[in-house]
Amino acid sequence: MRSLLTPRWLASHLFVLAMVTVMVNLALWQLARLDDTRTDNDAIRTASEAAPAMIEELLSLERLPLDHTATVVQGSYLDELSFLVANRTFDTRAGSWLATPVLLDDGRVVVVSRGWVPRLWVAGADGRDVATPTGEVQVSGRVFSSVGGGRIGSGSGDYPEVSRVDLDTVSEAIGLGVVDLWVQLESQEPAVGDLPVPVPPPTLDDGPHLSYAFQWFFFSLGAVVVYVLILRRRLRDE
Known about the structure:
Layout lengths: L6 H43 L3 E2 H5 L9 E9 L5 E8 L2 E11 L5 E10 H4 L13 E10 L15 E2 L4 H8 L6 E9 L19 H29 L1
Parallel strand pairs: 1-2, 3-7, 5-8
Antiparallel strand pairs: 2-4, 2-6, 3-4, 4-5, 6-8
Helix pairs in contact: 1-5
């Protein structure tokens, strides 16, 4: 028994204890992530399934609404100010989002991400028409706050390009001030062709966090069992 209390074995005990502690904490962290994911999903589900509010109503609130809140935008597209949001995928296919500002009746401008376009279209090798409807349009979709860290890209043809929907960067890219919310289009009247493809809402599942937590608990238990067997063998050899 004393041989298990030598400096070498004490260091081994501490190492195994540290590894088990780390793995258990990783498992608990995954469970916390799972709880956060479920909370976020509930908030998204509540916001998106509520009766849609006019964008003017959301803009009049003292605090910006939750992302994914259902909304309706009525106005006219400023097609000449359309721009691209680069590096967006759809069904694993590379492309961009095509966004166009909408002029409201009160003179304010709302950015509407109309949907996804393939890389071939961005490169000019896909001739499908993506023109906006003329006259007044009604857009139904989900509202989002501006994100930070956007940059202006090189653009493609007549379309300026931004890396993210950072509304300050968007304003700089198109040379026009916009409101503090943007909209991800789900449908519009009048409808248009097959491009852009509306971006679907996110899949509201638990993700892999629970399985990861089980894996870390299993690894920690396995480490304890294996180390106990090693110690028993050492004692038996003595």
